[in-house]
Amino acid sequence: FFFLVPNRLYKYDIVVKNLERAWDGIMDESWDLTFAVVKAWFSVVVTFIMLPAMFGVSLGITELYMKILWATLRIQKERKKQEVLNASLANGIIQRDDGSMEQEIGELRRCRPKSLAGGEFTLSDIFYFSRKGIESIVEDEVTQRFSSEELASWNLLTRTNNNFHYISLRLTVIWGLGVAIRYCILLPLRITLAAIGLSWLVIGTTLVGLLPSSRMKNWLSELVHLMCYRICARALSATIHYHNKENKPRKGGICVANHTSPIDVVILANDGCYAMVGQVHGGLMGVLQRSMVKSCPHVWFERSEMKDRHLVTTRLRNHVADKEKLPILIFPEGTCINNTSVMMFKKGSFEIGGRIYPVTIKYDPQFGDAFWNSGKYNMVSYLLRMMTSWAIVCNVWYLPAVERQEGEDAVHFANRVKSAIARQGGLEDLSWDGGLKRAKVKDTYKEQQQKKYSSMIVGEDSSD
Amino acid sequence: MIMFFSSPSDVKNNGHRRFFPYCHIILIPRGVSGHESGGITTFFARRFHHVTDHSCAIIMGSGDSTLSKIPNVEELMEETGFSPAHVVRLYERFQALDKSKKGQLSRKDFESIKELATNPIRDRIIGAFFAQGQEMVDFHTFVRILAHFRPVDKNRPKKANMQEPVNSRTSKLRFAFQLYDQDNDGKISRNELLQVLRTMLEMQVTDEQLESIADRTIQEADLDGDNAISFDEFRKSLEKVNIDHKMSIRFLR
Q1: Which of B118, B234, B238 has the CB atom closest to A446's CB atom?
Q2: Closest Cβ opposite residue B114 in set A83, A140, A449
Q3: Are residues B173 and B235 in contact, defined by beta-carbon separation less than 8 angstroms?
Q4: Among A61, A136, A315, A364, which residue's CB has the most CB atoms within a 10 Å radius?
Q5: Which residue range or ranges hold the Phospholipid/glycerol acyltransferase domain (chain A) (predicted)?
Q6: Interface touch B146/A138, C-beta < 8 Å
Q7: Torsions phi, psi of A345, nearest 5?
Q8: Per-residue pLDDT for chain A (464 aa), expressed as one digit of tens each?
Q9: Which has the closest alpha carbon to A65: A236, A184, A261, A195?
Q10: d(CA A234, CA A391)
């Protein structure tokens, strides 16, 4: 026993030393391993994704990815064919009558024994207004446009799982796998790409900005812009189909599109170069803006300048008049709408003159919802949601150019363009102002209704 | 849905005492009433029927998780006649309107509905939801008021001692009457009529025109000469109007 104890202690000491040495070895090796992994990661990213993106070549990886996604989601969709609940989500909760006020109140009055040709008040008139009011309370056209569209069948993203609760074990497993893939593989990849894209934009445009003005400079600046936007589009796994490319906006024109998210800019700029219009920001956006302006002219306004409509219009008009400058890109809705409808176009953009090139952007919500609900999410969390969706799939239609007709006022022109855009994309054409997202409804709408009603009661001559 | 339930160890079934473990965890698929989920449910139901005969019954059916969140939902459906699907949709709408997640709606929540702002009698309609002195509307009241606008049930059998259904012709008329009669004294006085006309027309007509319209209306409807319109006179003057059609909202599905 006496001999065993020191022997044991001695062996213990050596074992510890060996362990320490082994541990250091492992640590060193793991650092090397990490570096090797990161290096491999970068080379994969650069060769397979960035370089083809920069030169507009497609290696077919994205197509393969989309095919796999389609197949997976279709399997899931078929299992839910029994789900009847879906149909009602798209159609709304109540069926609304589209009769006008005159029609409806006239019908109400027809039942009375006396004939009322000249118009008069009856106690039954209130039925019309109360029913319209209750219909608005149950479902209204406007408020639903400022939140994300509901899906008919689940696309395996948690965020769209409102009405689809636990369905089956298999689906949960697939969903879990999806989360792992999206957050651990796709997200770092996309962030890397976005970082590369944006930094290249800043560096490239600054370099090009050093050159003297010449045809060469314009060509280079277009190239740099295109490359960066292509990389950014890959960073979102964006699959974009452009239709009617012969109608693409040309220099000296104004490009007008419906607005769903800040990503619209990337989507459109992937296929052509535009001059952006917007407010000067601070921070990262400010850096981007300042460097972009060095290589080709964009139109950035200070916050104070934005209030002066005349100034804004003059500057834009000067830009458009110069036939060498790129077409400006404007979103006349003024705010993000959820891509199920097109809201009122502000007439300011249509007073500038020049040719208008309307463009429709329609996202497919099945793979990722692109709508930015600016009340709910700030920019960073929005971008994070974008980068953890499956993909962004959208269709872009270039519509033929239009010009303001003789004697047509700006509002009418704006509505004409809006209807064309809505029709092409299958969106609903609403005349509500997108600014209602934050503002109150103006009293003029109520006054319109009152005027209509009063003309029914007292006749045309006394209403003014 | 994962269901935890504990069974007391001395539950009596068929005269036998059984001892069960205190906690069962059952994963029961729901939301689809297809045979797949039904099969699994009946599988579990058969195994644990002596414990779960109450619990399993409520698991079937689509959308039942939202339904189970609503308190006293059966009573509400019985009273108003809405189907479970309608109640679920109304609950979702209620939650969408309740932006600050209080579980109740205030006047401001109603006023934030953009489309409602164009209605000349918006304030009166909103006021119909709030009983005297109340400042908040809970879901039950919300549904009960909306139930006035359900189409009339033609096939509902008349039970003795049954209360007037919420969406009957008389109830709808009473709802409209109360939009006029703001002080709830059972009569529409000349002043109240003037007020309504003023709200609906505001700047569009002159005061004299309003007064002449009000006088004419009362003259036509007033039968007992008290210069006010009672509920019966109101009902009589509108007896030919197709109220069911005009005061009903067609709910889909």
Answers
A1: B118
A2: A140
A3: yes
A4: A136
A5: 253-364
A6: yes
A7: -90, 130
A8: 455 556 666 677 888 888 888 888 888 888 888 888 887 877 777 677 777 766 766 666 767 777 877 777 776 665 554 444 444 444 466 766 666 677 777 776 665 545 444 456 777 788 888 888 888 888 877 777 777 776 666 666 666 655 555 667 777 787 788 888 888 888 888 888 888 888 888 998 888 888 888 888 888 888 888 888 888 888 888 888 899 989 888 888 899 999 988 889 999 998 888 998 888 887 888 888 888 888 888 888 888 887 888 888 888 888 888 888 889 999 988 888 888 888 888 888 888 888 899 999 999 887 778 888 777 788 888 888 888 888 888 899 999 999 888 888 888 899 899 999 999 888 888 877 777 777 777 777 777 777 777 777 766 444 33
A9: A236
A10: 10
Q: Is A444 left (phi over 0), alpha (psi -120 to 50) or beta?
A: alpha
Closest CA to A306 of A283, A337, A333, A278: A278
Distance between CA A31 and CA A38 in Å, rounded? 11
The conformational region for residue A459 under phi > 0 = left, psi -120 to 50 = alpha, else beta, is: left
Considering only CA atoms, which of A385, A363, A365 is closest in space to residue A374?
A: A385
Q: Where are the beta strands (DSSP E) in chain B?
A: 2-5, 12-13, 16-17, 24-27, 187-188, 229-230, 250-251
What is the spatial distance between Cα A17 and Cα A167, in angstroms, rounded to a whole number? 55
Question: Are the beta carbons of B48 and B24 closer than 8 angstroms?
Answer: yes
Residue type at position A335:
T
Question: Taking Cα atoms as reference points, which of B144, B188, B95, B71 lies closest to residue A134?
Answer: B144
Distance (Å) from the C-alpha of residue B54 to the closest C-alpha of chain A? 21
CB-nearest to B120 from A82, A94, A446 is A446
Comparing CA positions, the residue from A301, A249, A244 lying closest to residue A274 is A249
Q: Crossing angle, helix B190-201 and helix A443-458, to 10 degrees?
A: 120
pTM confidence score: 0.67
Taking the Cβ of residue B182 and every Cβ of chain A, the question of whether any pair is shorter than 8 Å is answered with no
Asked whether the beta carbons of A360 and A457 are under 8 A apart, the reply is no
Give the integer Cα–Cα distance in Å for B182 and B244. Answer: 23
Encoded amino acid at B40, one letter: I
Which amino acid, A404?
R
Residues of A in contact with B90 (CB under 8 A): 93, 138
CA-CA distance, A250 to A272, in Å (whole number)?
Answer: 9
Distance of alpha carbon A257 from alpha carbon A259, whole angstroms: 6
Give dist(CA B248, CA A130) in Å, integer: 10
The three-point CA angle A40-A43-A46 to 5° equals 150
CB-nearest to A167 from B29, B118, B206 is: B29
Give the Cα separation of A326 and A319 in Å (integer): 9
DSSP state of B56: G
Instruction: Please answer yes or no on whether A166 and B29 come within 8 Å at the CB atom.
Output: yes
Task: Give, in order, the Cα–Cα distances in Å from A186 to each of A39, A248, A264, B248.
Answer: 17, 32, 21, 51
As a whole number of angstroms, the distance between CA B28 and CA B57 comes to 12
Kind of pairing between the strands at A392-398 and A356-364:
antiparallel
Taking contacts as CB-CB distances below 8 angstroms, the residues of chain B near A82 are 32-34
Contact A450 B204 (CB under 8 A): yes
Cα of A350 vs its chain's centroid, Å: 23
The one-letter code for the residue type at A15 is V
